[in-house]
Write a structure and sequence with these properties.
Blueprint (H helix, E strand, L loop, with lengths): L16 E5 L2 E7 L5 E6 L19 E10 L4 H11 L4 E4 L8 H9 L3 E4 L22 H17 L7 E2 L8 H9 L3 E2 L7 H4 L1 E3 L8 H11 L5 E5 L4 H20 L1 E3 L11 H5 L1
Parallel strand pairs: 4-5, 4-10, 4-11, 5-6, 7-8, 9-10
Antiparallel strand pairs: 1-2, 2-3
Helix pairs in contact: 1-7, 3-4, 6-7
């Protein structure tokens, strides 16, 4: 799905009222249909500069921006930047983070983004280990529950039934993928086994990469059909990625690259073949 540049600024200045409340900023944004909703960010940082949106003939092809681990406090900043730059993206979200952020889901969908499944609570789906170090008993039924609960949460928030999933950490094997396929979910890896030929650009933002490192990693590997992996569900890592977007878009305009939410046919990164 490719879109023309929307005539909306990163913070919808012409139709937005911002009020600082207890260290937060609440922005009421009116979309093209005229409906309004409140978007509250967890930071008082000014909105990123998005003065030079995507504006080229797409002769170089298309890339797909993806964002993992949200929705969280910085997701609204990501959405602001994407809107100002004219980028539609694919978000892979955790089901347990949806409650209380239904308006963020609604906003993302209204602005042309696609939402995929990133499990319920971000476990290693091949072992059952959770982020806090505890471990679930691994069974195919447990994998199914992780994915189905997230599907239900997204649908309840107004999203269409997801058709894409990304396993946390990129931890995948054939057993997990078979369960996902039974649920109508297609694997989109965050990294590839053979970086060059798999054409998945991992920015490593979650590892503490600086803004410049994110820019360098992205523009070095970015070409037609690239899948670019960033995170909207992180703290400073997400803010660094947001700040990297304008320079990345500048290079896209130079190379004639546009953004799309349509996933190419091969998105497994060769990892299933590697792990079996």
């Amino acid at each position: 799905m490719t879109r023309p540049r929307r005539m909306v600024t990163a913070v919808a200045v012409s139709v937005a009222a911002a009020v600082a409340v207890a260290g937060t900023i609440q922005v009421v944004i009116r979309d093209h249909s005229g409906s309004a909703f409140a978007a509250t960010t967890a930071t008082t940082r000014s909105a990123p500069t998005t003065e030079r949106p995507l504006d080229n003939d797409c002769s170089g092809g298309h890339v797909t921006f993806t964002f993992d681990d949200g929705p969280r406090e910085n997701t609204e900043r990501v959405l602001d930047a994407l809107d100002g730059l004219g980028i539609d993206a694919v978000f892979f979200w955790n089901g347990q983070r949806i409650k209380g952020r239904e308006r963020t889901v609604t906003r993302a969908l209204a602005e042309g983004h696609v939402v995929g499944n990133h499990s319920w609570d971000h476990p290693d789906m091949t072992t059952g280990e959770l982020p806090d170090g505890t471990k679930e008993t691994w069974t195919p039924e447990w994998v199914r529950s992780e994915l189905e609960r997230t599907n239900r949460a997204l649908i309840a928030a107004g999203a269409p039934r997801p058709t894409l999933y990304r396993p946390p950490y990129g931890a995948i094997n054939r057993q997990v993928d078979e369960v996902a396929q039974e649920l109508g979910l297609r694997l989109v890896m965050p990294w590839g086994y053979h970086e060059e030929e798999d054409n998945i650009v991992d920015t490593h933002d979650y590892e503490g990469a600086t803004t410049q490192e994110i820019i360098d990693a992205t523009v070095r590997g970015m070409r037609a059909d690239s899948i670019i992996t960033m995170h909207d569900g992180q703290g400073q890592a997400t803010l660094n990625s947001v700040d990297a977007l304008q320079p990345i878009v500048d290079v896209m305009n130079e190379r004639g690259l546009c953004a799309t939410t349509e996933m190419r046919e091969d998105t497994t990164g060769g990892v299933l073949e590697m792990y079996g």
